[in-house]
From TrEMBL:
The lineage of its organism: Bacteria, Bacillati, Bacillota, Clostridia, Eubacteriales. It comes from Proteiniclasticum ruminis. It comes from the Bacteria. This is Uncharacterized protein.
Length: 171
């Protein structure tokens, strides 16, 4: 079983990069005196400028919050659960600090969106998630605690965050 967490909204999502990750090409890795396997150096099909290596200072930082709207792993799952047209997968391991970053991201996103949904489920589950609702004004870290799977999975959940005062303008 694999867990799947994602956000859905009526407004496009901005990308959020993991600040601890660095992508390197073969050339850049060699400039840093890193060891590169011979089969990579000798392969004429390998582009020395293509960023194929991932560099991170600690294993813990590998699991920092990332949101890449262009990289949705399971679009059929989100399409089954939400009518919102924009989806972004949560790539992270829950921690209080990361949840605070996510909370700030949600607040910023809802400055120009009507609503946002947050889903947490196992990929092979067929049933509907337990749905919760909160207004943006009341949203806090406690509402995001269902995303923390460290104490075990509690079943499929979703949180619908409504913005009663968005700055967006409908056309």
């Amino acid at each position: 079983m694999s867990s799947y967490q994602f956000l859905a909204s009526d407004h496009p999502f901005e990308k959020l990069e993991n600040p601890f990750l660095e992508h390197l090409s073969i050339r850049e890795a060699l400039e840093r005196n890193m060891d590169i396997p011979d089969f990579m150096l000798e392969n004429p099909d390998m582009d020395p400028e293509e960023k194929i290596f991932l560099l991170c200072d600690t294993e813990e930082h590998l699991e920092d919050l990332e949101l890449h709207p262009e990289e949705i792993s399971f679009p059929e799952v989100s399409a089954r659960l939400t009518e919102n047209p924009y989806v972004v997968e949560l790539q992270w391991r829950y921690s209080k600090e990361r949840a605070e970053t996510l909370l700030a991201y949600i607040r910023k996103h809802l400055a120009s969106a009507k609503n946002l949904e947050i889903f947490s489920l196992w990929l092979d589950e067929e049933g509907e998630p337990h749905r919760m609702e909160v207004t943006l004004d009341c949203l806090n870290l406690r509402h995001l605690s269902f995303l923390d799977l460290s104490d075990g999975y509690q079943g499929p959940r979703s949180l619908h965050v409504k913005n009663s005062h968005p700055d967006y303008k409908e056309s």
